[in-house]
User: Fold these one by one.
Assistant:
Number 1:
Amino acid sequence: MTATAGAGLVVEGLEVSYGDVRALHGVDITVPAGSVTAVLGANGAGKSSLAAAIGGAGPVDRGRIVVDGEDVTRWPAYRRARAGVAYVPEGRGVFPHLTVLDNLRAMLRRAVPAADRADALARAMDTFPVLHERRRQAAGTLSGGEQQMLALARVLAAPPRLLVADEMSLGLAPRMVDVVFDGLRRAEDEGVTILLVEQYVERALDLADEAVLLRHGEVAWAGPVGDARAEVRSSYLGG
Ligand code: ATP
């Protein structure tokens, strides 16, 4: 992907509420194409609401979500997926009753033109051989780590333009957390623009170019990781 003006993710004035609960109050975020931004914040700060809104899986009251220059704010999730927005929600987003193979097929169907699907499927299986072994098993019966591999396999098989990853390492054993971060790094190497919500703040900052700190649904701080790592850390851990 070439970095052109307006490329990447731009979120402007995003407001999200659930009934009377206002989760985001006018959030502005820019993630330049091919870069990684870590979204940090305490429980309830609005991280998942932001991720879901970008993925097309959550409500938006006001504001704009622009991906590579295209305003996707009112697009349904499937249309965003086709346009290269991969949203991996907290809780993995696999179809539990479908087999591993059918999960991959379903995910690739949304993201990859028909002619390229067989190749993408083979790549997914190559990346995580355990998925090949388990291909006829219902995804809901995979371990947490294996389910996360399934979610990552789709992303790596057909690199999206934008990956929105919400707590991919939640509840995983340390070895599987490594697998997740290796996968994210590979996506980064492929030039994927990444918005990363992660409980492992240090590891997220290692991967990220920039960080955004949300507090009570607002951006409390934003900037390059290298400039203000310590500030982000102390503010986040202190908050
Ligand atoms: P955590 O780190 O605990 O997952 P978060 O930063 O991802 O938190 P959100 O899940 O976005 O935060 O929640 C932001 C606010 O919106 C919280 O006050 C939460 O209670 C509220 N909220 C989120 N989802 C809903 C919902 N479906 N219905 C009502 N309120 C919600």
Number 2:
Amino acid sequence: MYITDDGIRLNASLEMPKEKKEKYPLAVILHGFTGHMEERHILAISHMLNEIGCATLRADLYGHGHSDGEFRNHTLFKWMGNAMTLIDYARSLDFVSDIYLCGHSQGGLTAMLTGALKHDVLRGLILLSPASMIPEGARQGQLLGYPFDPEHIPDEIPAWNNQTLGGNYIRVAQSIRVEEYIPRYEGSVLLVHGDADGAVPVQCSIDAAKQYKNAELAIIAGDGHCYENHLDQAVKAVRGWMEKQIREEKKA
Ligand code: FER
């Protein structure tokens, strides 16, 4: 199915738990840079959440997967807008109780930023290897291992998979102060990060965990950016945290 964000069609999939109930919590799940909603780690998290009674809404974000938009034209602002649209779609469903926002890497950064903007409608954030260093990298002139002059931003830089990223991505990223967004989300946060992540340093999650008012941090020893080695442990960390949230939801 498609969910439309201001004329941009976002390819999305809504999946329900097997057990029949009147209301379910729902997690919106965001992939990372050059990623898509069918990636192994995205599916593993989504299927586990369905098993424990949580509906999931996965989507391809602007310029990725089977959604509209060109990869080169995507920016964090466009992804934040997409995430807000997905959350509002979830809010329009009458079977949804609490809404969680989950994202991997650049999708994790998007979840951090959108969490601040929509703090009052989100029950929790699940940040998987969140790429919180992107804005500072953009200010320093260092993204994707490709140095550039941050005061004279090139019209394009080379990205992964032989793709090209437009300079507006960098301009937007430079404007974002992650440390101003983080404290605007005071609800429950889970951070999951492999300590052998070569794309996003584990320090990003260690630092963010300290800045959040109410965060838990699960470091996966020996794991990489997409949980290549210990996906089961990453999934288990999310499962334990989410089961606890759902128990607390029921008490409330
Ligand atoms: C970068 C390092 C990591 C970067 C993006 C990422 C745009 C994102 C990784 C991901 O989403 O998986 O320098 O620059």
